[in-house]
Design a protein that fits this description.
Elements lengths: L2 H20 L9 H16 L10 H25 L2 H7 L3 H11 L7 H18 L5 H27 L4 H23 L3 H7 L2 H26 L4 H4 L5 H13 L6 H18 L15
Helix pairs in contact: 1-4, 1-10, 1-12, 2-3, 2-8, 2-10, 3-7, 3-8, 4-12, 5-6, 5-7, 6-13, 8-10
InterPro entries: AA-Vitamin_Transporters, EamA_dom, EmrE-like
Organism: Dongia sedimenti
Protein name: DMT family transporter
């Protein structure tokens, strides 16, 4: 990869890790689905007039906007509501082993011992981080993250095949479909949106466009631009940086503790991811996908 592309791949992780972590207090103010609806609405309204018309078919955009945007992000935000930010960010790294399995089922890669071992190590690491949840809310948060992980991983495996756009053009088009989908979902499954909107502090409102622009629009536009220029196995090693930034921000900015189980489990998760992405004979995970 050219040096500029490497810098861009690192920048994505610098933005993604802290963004998801710092979203934790915001989902305590705004209902998660409402927050996702606002994020995608901001992206769609700001960037649609600035990008060319999408060439990807509308039906395709509707589907990838839902599974790669609306469903995935809403599940991650729900998980952040019920789990510590550091735990959620580490659990999110299950996207890579899920992506490996998705690539097997799609016939884009063949099962191999290295990826199997790496996936098992990741599962062990997540189990150490999470421990044995005693509360129903914790189980719900983990289940939501699993749904988001699967939705994102499978969608990313499909995007390079079905999308005819890239960068901000693709992401703005996805946001145009994800925004109304999320508005409907919020109206159906949440209540009290008006009361929250009128009582939320100014700092919370200021955080919404910051999340939309710095946590979603910019990194995702760069990601989709790189995804059309490089194999996914060239990009996935950079994902090892995301939980590092996320956990550090959770400890320093949110005051979350760093128990030994979290540090040990995080190290095991990263080790498992490393096993998967390290190339063997010039080949990584082949055509498998990568997460957010």
């Amino acid at each position: 990869m050219p040096p500029l592309h490497i810098l861009l791949a690192v920048l994505i992780q610098v933005l993604w890790g802290p963004c998801y972590t710092l979203t934790k207090p915001i989902v305590g103010i705004f209902p998660p689905l409402m927050l996702v609806a606002m994020v995608y609405s901001i992206v769609a309204l700001l960037f649609t007039p600035l990008v060319p018309r999408a060439k990807t078919p509308r039906r395709t955009l509707f589907l990838i906007g839902f599974f790669g945007g609306a469903l995935q992000t809403s599940m991650v935000f729900l998980s952040l509501k019920y789990l510590p930010a550091s735990t959620a960010v580490l659990a999110m790294q299950m996207q890579l082993p899920v992506a490996v399995v998705a690539s097997w089922f799609m016939g884009r890669d063949k099962p191999n011992l290295k990826n199997t071992i790496g996936s098992i190590v990741c599962l062990i690491g997540v189990a150490i981080v999470v421990g044995r949840p005693e509360a129903t809310d914790a189980w719900f948060g983990l289940a939501a993250m699993l749904v988001g992980v699967i939705s994102w991983s499978v969608t990313q495996a499909v995007i390079p095949v079905v999308a005819k756009d890239q960068g901000m053009t693709l992401y703005a088009a996805m946001a145009r479909y994800a925004a109304p989908q999320m508005i409907v979902m919020s109206l159906l499954f949440e209540s009290g949106q008006w009361q929250v909107a009128t009582s939320a502090p100014l700092a919370a409102w200021a955080a919404v466009p910051a999340i939309a622009l710095l946590g979603f629009a910019l990194p995702y536009a760069i990601w989709y631009w790189l995804l059309m220029r490089h194999r996914v196995d060239e990009l996935t090693p950079f994902l090892l940086l995301m939980p590092v930034f996320g956990v550090v921000v959770a400890a320093t900015q949110l005051g979350e503790p760093l128990p030994a189980s979290l540090l040990l489990g995080g190290a095991v998760v990263i080790a498992g991811l490393a096993v998967i992405v390290i190339r063997r004979g010039g080949r990584g995970i082949g055509q498998a996908t990568a997460p957010n």
